[in-house]
Amino acid sequence: MAVESTRWGIVYCPKSKSSKRWERIRQLLDARQVSYDFVQSESRDSVYRIVTMFVQNGYKTIVIVGGDSALNDAVNSLMHEEKRVRDEIVLGLIPNGLMDDFARFWGFTDMDDEQIIGHLLKRRVRRIDLGCIRYVNKKQESCHRYFLNCVNIGLTADIMNLRRQTRHIFGLRTLSYLTSLLLLLFHRQSYRMLLRINTDVVDRQVMTVCIGNARGYGQTPSAVPYNGLLDVSVVCNPKVLKLFTGMWLLITGRFLNHHDVHPYRTREIVVEKSSRAFVGIDGRLISTPVGEYRVQVEQEVINFLIPS
Q1: Which residues fall within 8 angstroms of residue 179, CB to CB, at 6 or more apart?
Q2: Which of these, 137, 160, 207, 225, is most buried using a 10 Å CB contact count?
C-alpha cells in the first residue's frame, strides 16, 4: 500500500558503529513532527536497493543521510526509473560522509542538522543537472553511471582512495587529506591522454583530469549543477615545487590559478586514450574503462531540496 505523499523515506548511511548521529537527527525530526520511515544502509550496494524500494512504495520525498557516494547511488537508482515517476520524487540530503563535497556546495555541513532539517521542511525544490559517463568494461559490456559532483581520471582518483584509507587511521578530515597528498608524491606519475573537448584536442602527458558537475573537490570551483555544462580541469605533469604550490591553491580554493591547470567548459568530453588511468566517480573508484569513453551532461533531471 502506498504511503501518504508527505511522508519521508530516509536512508541512513552510518560512517561508524556509533548511533549517536542518527539519534540526534531522529530527535530533531520528532521535535519537528516530521512523518518518516527510515532504513539503515548495511552495505555499499544497499542504498540503490533501498531507494528503489521507497520509490516502489510511493514515497515522494527521499532523504539520504550520507556522503557523496551514497548520494551517487541514490541518483543512479532514481535515473533507472521512468521520467514520469522520477519527476514526482524530490531528493534531499543530510550530510554524513567523509567528504560531503556536494553538500558543502549548497552550504550544508554535518554540524548544522537542525538548520538543514529546517531547510528540507521548507521544501525549496530545484531541478539540477547530472553528469553521465558512458564506457565499456573489461567484460565488453556497455555501462553508464551518473554523477552529481565529478569524475576524476588519473592520480586524483588515487588520492580519493588514499584519503579514505588515511581517514580511518588519522580521523581528522584535514590531516587525512594532507597525508594522502604527501603519499601521492612517492608514486607521482603521468598518463598519456588524448581528449576531445569542444573543438580542442588535448594530446599530451597529463597528471589528472577532473570533470565537474559541481565543485569537484576543489578542482572545478566554478562549476554549478544547473547550467547544462560541465567544467573540466586538465592538470599537466608539474615539477615537485609546482606540485606543492598546486596543493596549496587547491586547499585555499584557487586551484585554477595554477600554471599547469588548463580549464574548459563543455557539454561533452571524449576520452579517446588515457593509458588505463584510474577513474573515480563522486569519490568512488570504478572498474577502469576499456577503450574510448565519454562524459556528458543531462540538464535538469533530478528534483533536489536546496537551502531557502
Answers
A1: 162, 166, 170
A2: 225
What residues form DSSP beta bridges with 145? 133
Report which residue type is found at 140.
Q
pLDDT tens digits, 204-244: 999 889 999 999 888 899 999 999 999 999 988 655 444 54
Sorted by sequence, the CB contacts under 8 Å of residue 85 that are 6+ apart come out as 55
pLDDT of 18-51, one tens digit each?
Answer: 788 899 999 999 999 999 999 999 887 899 999 9
Per-residue pLDDT of 112-148, as tens digits, reads 899 999 999 999 999 999 999 999 999 999 999 999 9
Q: Which of 102, 115, 106, 130 is nearest to 226 (CA)?
A: 130
How many alpha carbons lie under 13 Å from residue 263 in its C-beta half-sphere? 19
Beta-bridge partner residues of 279: 153
CA dihedral in degrees (162, 192, 201, 242; nearest 10)? 60
CB atoms within 10 A of CB 139: 8
Are 206 and 215 spatial neighbours (Cβ–Cβ below 8 Å)? no
Which is it for strands 36-40 and 8-12: parallel, antiparallel or unpaired? parallel
Give burial (CB, 10 Å; 0-12/13-18/19+) of 96: buried
Round to whole Å and give the CA distance between 103 and 109: 7
Neighbours of 171 (CB within 10 A): 9
